[in-house]
Design brief:
With 428 residues, this protein is an alpha/beta fold. It folds into 3 domains: 115 residues, Rossmann fold (3-Layer(aba) Sandwich); 230 residues, tm_1862 like domain (pyruvate-formate lyase- activating enzyme); 54 residues, Nucleic acid-binding proteins (OB fold (Dihydrolipoamide Acetyltransferase, E2P)), CATH 2.40.50.140. It has 14 helices and 18 strands. The N and C termini lie far apart (55 Å). The mean pLDDT is 96. Catalyzes the methylthiolation of N6-threonylcarbamoyladenosine (t(6)A), leading to the formation of 2-methylthio-N6-threonylcarbamoyladenosine (ms(2)t(6)A) at position 37 in tRNAs that read codons beginning with adenine.
């Protein structure tokens, strides 16, 4: 076959990571060796992200660096940036092959050809292939791609298309069953919008989860990925009761994006602030103790000081477990690109204020866990080398001075909290 050593980097969301693992699965099955550094590689694969303007700049800078680190290597660039900035990529890597996210399954075929291959904006996905579990406590599996939204700040409709593409229930369930039988303790279900799963194949996320829990025996925990609020509202009454099963992390990533109805309308979000609050209230009433995580964009065109204050009030009212704060950046092909912008110093100030508030709220939320007993799934190590794991609510717990194995399930008393994690003692 000739060149066989492949170095790969993946950036961005959990869906991108799942697709990166799918690419590795395909390459290994075709006989390629995955290596850990670019310098000995014959082929360099970069799985890119394009969610923000600064992300795009970082991606292009990294391609430049990799070209210098592996000047003789053949390059394949995939991920969301391919459909957004193909020309910019080729200016840096003239001989690279470009594969849009939906074409990642064609990577093996592409490497068998001598000339560069370009597959862009076709949005045709092979829904018969999923990544195979290899090792470790966690299995990341994409279950859908595509989004029903048309947000005026988001370029993902260019990156991945508007049509929802869902993997068959049986294929997903069998892949999880295989991974669990081989020792997996965590399963991350990923997608562009998990709440839109099944729209194209006559099913839904609740049906998938119900089938998975019924047909996959053993002890494991499933983390459900991001759910768009207007899509989640359609079936929240069917979904929330499923989270009484201890195998589902009581974790809900539901991006609100803003706390002002006028700005939500400018963003083309399909709900009001009150509808969002009602949705979160319904989840908490049904599920009980749980983690609710959200995303906020500050400085979107048209955001007044009053609108920004409404966002801060929403954070105070809902008391999110975690908030991802992002300053608005211009993205091509979006309606927001054409609107009068908020000055950068104003965006920076608002971002700082929102981040400080979100961190304070996270600290207050985590403080309530002190003194509680929790069943913690050990899934890694902290930066100090201490054992680390997750509570049923997906809270990070550090356990100092304990000899624990990845995959252990231990009872822990929470002794300390910070805005970012909990600390605890193992109870015999």
């Amino acid at each position: 076959m000739g060149k066989k050593r492949v170095y790969m980097e993946t950036y961005g969301c959990w869906l991108n990571r799942g697709e990166g693992e799918l690419a590795k699965t395909i390459l290994r099955e075709k006989g390629y060796e995955i290596v850990n550094t670019p310098s000995p590689a014959d082929i360099v694969v970069v799985n890119t992200c394009a969610v923000r303007g600064d992300t795009e700049r970082n991606m292009l800078a990294r391609l430049e660096e990799l070209r210098k680190l592996a000047p003789e290597a053949r390059f394949v660039v995939t991920g969301c940036l391919v459909n957004v900035r193909p020309k910019s990529i080729l200016e840096i890597l003239p001989g690279a092959s470009l594969l849009e996210p939906d074409a990642v399954t064609k990577i093996g075929e592409v490497l068998e050809r001598d000339e560069p291959v370009y597959i862009l904006r076709k949005y045709e996905r092979d829904l018969s292939l999923l990544p195979k579990y290899r090792e470790g406590p966690t299995y990341v599996i994409p279950i859908q791609s595509g989004c029903m939204g048309s947000c005026s700040f988001c370029v993902e409709w260019v990156a991945r298309g508007r049509r929802v593409k869902s993997y068959p229930v049986e294929l997903v369930v069998n892949a999880v069953k295989e991974a669990v039988s081989r020792g997996v303790r965590e399963v991350y279900l990923t997608g562009q919008d998990i709440a839109s799963y099944g729209l194209d194949i006559g099913t839904s996320l609740p049906e998938l989860l119900k089938t998975l829990l019924e047909e996959v025996p053993g002890y494991y925990r499933v983390r459900v990925g991001m759910m768009e609020p207007s899509m989640l509202r359609r079936f929240v009454d069917r979904l929330a009761p499923l989270f009484k099963d201890p195998r589902l992390y009581k974790y809900f990533h539901v991006p609100v994006q803003h706390g002002d109805d006028r700005v939500l309308s400018l963003m083309n979000r399909k709900y009001t602030v009150n509808e969002y609050k009602s949705l979160i209230r319904r989840i908490r009433e049904e599920v009980g103790l749980s983690s609710v995580v959200t995303d906020i964009v500050v400085g979107f065109p048209g955001e007044t000081e009053e609108a920004f204050q409404n966002t801060l009030r929403l954070l105070e009212e809902i008391m999110f477990d975690k908030v991802h704060i992002a300053r608005y950046t211009l993205r091509p092909f979006t309606k927001g690109y054409l609107l009068p912008g908020v000055p950068e110093p104003v965006k920076k100030r608002r971002s700082r204020l929102a981040s400080e508030l979100a961190l304070r709220i996270s600290g207050e939320v985590n403080k309530k866990y002190e003194g509680m007993l929790a069943e913690v799934l050990v899934n890694g190590a902290s930066f100090r080398g201490d054992a680390a794991g997750r509570t049923p609510e997906y809270k990070l717990v550090i356990m100092k001075d304990y000899d624990l194995k990845v995959g252990d399930l231990v009872k822990v008393r929470i002794t300390k909290s910070t805005p970012l994690h909990l600390e605890g003692e193992v109870v015999d």
